[in-house]
Design brief:
Layout: E1 33-41, E2 47-55
């Protein structure tokens, strides 16, 4: 990647850290989560599929 000059420039700015306030509310147990996916087309015509799932249940 470096030889082909495909690297991104490093970030020089930093986001301010803020305190998280509030609570996540779900109508029923075991329904707090998120999922999604996207595709990355490659130069050779193939497609890479990325899928993810996140469980937002707090550990008690």
């Amino acid at each position: 990647m470096r030889l082909a000059s495909l690297l991104l420039q490093p970030r020089t700015d930093r986001r301010a850290i803020r305190a998280l306030e509030g609570a996540v509310v779900a109508r029923a147990s075991n329904q707090r989560g998120a999922s999604g996916g996207f595709e990355i087309p490659c130069w050779n015509g193939e497609v890479v599929l990325i899928a993810f799932a996140i469980d937002n249940h707090p550990v008690t």
